[in-house]
C-alpha cells in the first residue's frame, strides 16, 4: 500500500509517540541498511569462523576484522581469541567492549589510511562487487604480516552472470597486493536474511528461508611484502543518515539549495523496492532510502532533513523551519511540512511492525538448531 493511500490522518501518529529504542532482535548490532549491502553471518557460521581462526593462525596473534560485525559481536560476548582483535568498519556497532582484547574503530575500509598493525589473520566480508572486494583485499594485505591468511567472503558462481571472470580478475589483481589465492571453499558461509531483504522478498512474493544466502570463502596468503597501488574507486555518493524510531533513514541532500517540497514521492508500488541488486535502475532515482528498503524521491530534501531533526527532537517542525528561515511560513509550506511529517511517521510505524515480525521469525528460526558445515583442515599461517 502506498503511503498516500493509508487510511489514517496526521493526528493518529505524533512525534511523541515514536519509539526511540530499537526492539530486541537478538543482537546488539545496528540494523543493516541496504545502501551498505550489509549481511550478517548466522550464529553457526560465526562459531565456525572463530574455530577456523585457530586452524589458520596462532591464537596469540593479532586478528583484524574488516566489515565483519558478527565476529566482533561474538568477540565482545566471550573470549574467542587470545590475542588482540581489531574491528574496522564505517558503521560502529552498539556493543560494549566486554572483552578488553577487542578494539572497535570507525574506519572506511575503502578510503581511509590503514592502521599500523601486523595482524596474523584477517577476516573480510565486503559487499559482493569487484571494486569493493579489491579494496578490502588491499586493506587486508596492508595490515597483515608475511605468511598471514586473509579469509574473505566471495559470491558463489550462481550469484550473477560473469562471476567466474570476475573472480579471475580479482585473483590477478590480488597478486599485485602480495596475496596468493590458496583455497576457495564453496558454500562455507551462511547469512541470515536482513530486514531490508526480507521486505524486498515479501513485496516481490519470493519467500525464501531466513538462511538461504550462502557465500564461498576465499583464503589468501600474504607472500610478498611489497604492496601494490590501492585500487581506484568510483566517486562516493554522500548520504545523510538520521535514525527515528526503528528506522535508519538516509537522504541524498546534495549541494543544491533550491527550494522544493519535502513530500515523499513514490518510485515503486507499495514504496518497498522489490530487489536488493545494485543493477536495478530505480536506485538512481531515489534520494530517500530507509532501512526497510523503502525508496522515495523528494524535491526538497533539505527541508525534509529539518523535519526529521524536529521529529527526533519531538518538536514542532513548522516552528523550527520558520525560525531557520527567519520568516513566517505560507499555508502551502505548512501543509507540505505536515504531510511530510505524516509520511515519515507512517514509515516509522510500518517498519517498526515489520521489524518486530522479522525479529520473531529470526528468533524462531534460530531455535531450529545448528546446520552442518564442511570441515576444513589447512596448514596454519607462518
What is the compact description of this entry?
With 382 residues, this protein is α/β, with parallel strands linked by helices. Helices cover 31% and strands 19% of the residues.
Strand and helix map with partners:
Elements: E1 40-41, H1 43-56, E2 63-66, H2 69-77, E3 85-89, E4 102-106, E5 119-124, H3 130-143, E6 144-154, H4 163-176, E7 179-192, H5 195-204, E8 214-222, E9 240-244, E10 247-251, E11 265-266, E12 288-290, E13 295-297, H6 301-313, H7 317-325, H8 331-366
Please, could you describe this protein's structure?
The structure is a single chain. The strands form two sheets. This protein has an eight-stranded mixed beta sheet with strand order 1-7-8-6-5-2-3-4, sandwiched between helices. A five-stranded antiparallel beta sheet has the order 9-10-12-13-11. Mean pLDDT is 88; it is low at 1-13, 15-26 and 370-382. The radius of gyration is 22 Å and the shape is elongated. It has two domains: 34-193 and 212-233, Vaccinia Virus protein VP39 (Rossmann fold, 3-Layer(aba) Sandwich); 237-363, no CATH class. The protein has eight helices and 13 strands. The protein is α/β, with parallel strands linked by helices and 382 residues long. The chain starts with 39 loop residues before the first strand and ends in a 16-residue tail after the last helix.
Amino acid at each position: 500500500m502506498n503511503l498516500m493511500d493509508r487510511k489514517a490522518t496526521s493526528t493518529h501518529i505524533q512525534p511523541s509517540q515514536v519509539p526511540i529504542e530499537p526492539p530486541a532482535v537478538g543482537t546488539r548490532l545496528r540494523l543493516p541498511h541496504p545502501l551498505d549491502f550489509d549481511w550478517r553471518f548466522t550464529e553457526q557460521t560465526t562459531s565456525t569462523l572463530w574455530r577456523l581462526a585457530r586452524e589458520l593462525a596462532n591464537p596469540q596473534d593479532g586478528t583484524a576484522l574488516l566489515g565483519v560485525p558478527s565476529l566482533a559481536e561474538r568477540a565482545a560476548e566471550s573470549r574467542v581469541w587470545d590475542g588482540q582483535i581489531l574491528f574496522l568498519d564505517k558503521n560502529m556497532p552498539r556493543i560494549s567492549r566486554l572483552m578488553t582484547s577487542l578494539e572497535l574503530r570507525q574506519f572506511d575500509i575503502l578510503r581511509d589510511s590503514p592502521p599500523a598493525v601486523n595482524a596474523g589473520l584477517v577476516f573480510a566480508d565486503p559487499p559482493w562487487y569487484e571494486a569493493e572486494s579489491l579494496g578490502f583485499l588491499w586493506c587486508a594485505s596492508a595490515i597483515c604480516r608475511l605468511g598471514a591468511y586473509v579469509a574473505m567472503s566471495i559470491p558463489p558462481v550462481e550469484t550473477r552472470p560473469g562471476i567466474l571472470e570476475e573472480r579471475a580478475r580479482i585473483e590477478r589483481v590480488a597478486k599485485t597486493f602480495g596475496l596468493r589465492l590458496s583455497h576457495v571453499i564453496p558454500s562455507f558461509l551462511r547469512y541470515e536474511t536482513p530486514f531490508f531483504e526480507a521486505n524486498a522478498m515479501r513485496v516481490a512474493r519470493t519467500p525464501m528461508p531466513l538462511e538461504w544466502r550462502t557465500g564461498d570463502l576465499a583464503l589468501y596468503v600474504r607472500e610478498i611484502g611489497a604492496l601494490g597501488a590501492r585500487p581506484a574507486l568510483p566517486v562516493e555518493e554522500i548520504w545523510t543518515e538520521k535514525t527515528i524510531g526503528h528506522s535508519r533513514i538516509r537522504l541524498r541532500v546534495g549541494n543544491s539549495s533550491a527550494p522544493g517540497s519535502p513530500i515523499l514521492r513514490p518510485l515503486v508500488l507499495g514504496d518497498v523496492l522489490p530487489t536488493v541488486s545494485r543493477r536495478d535502475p530505480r536506485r538512481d532515482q531515489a534520494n530517500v532510502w530507509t532501512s526497510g528498503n523503502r525508496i522515495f524521491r523528494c524535491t526538497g530534501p533539505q527541508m525534509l532533513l529539518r523535519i526529521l531533526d524536529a521529529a527526533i527532537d519531538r518538536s514542532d517542525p513548522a516552528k523550527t523551519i520558520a525560525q531557520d528561515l527567519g520568516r513566517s511560513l505560507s499555508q502551502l509550506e505548512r501543509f507540505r511540512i505536515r504531510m511530510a511529517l505524516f509520511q515519515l511517521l507512517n514509515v516509522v510505524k510500518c517498519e517498526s511492525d515489520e521489524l518486530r515480525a522479522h525479529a520473531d521469525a529470526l528468533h524462531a528460526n534460530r531455535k531450529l538448531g545448528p546446520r552442518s558445515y564442511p570441515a576444513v583442515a589447512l596448514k596454519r599461517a607462518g
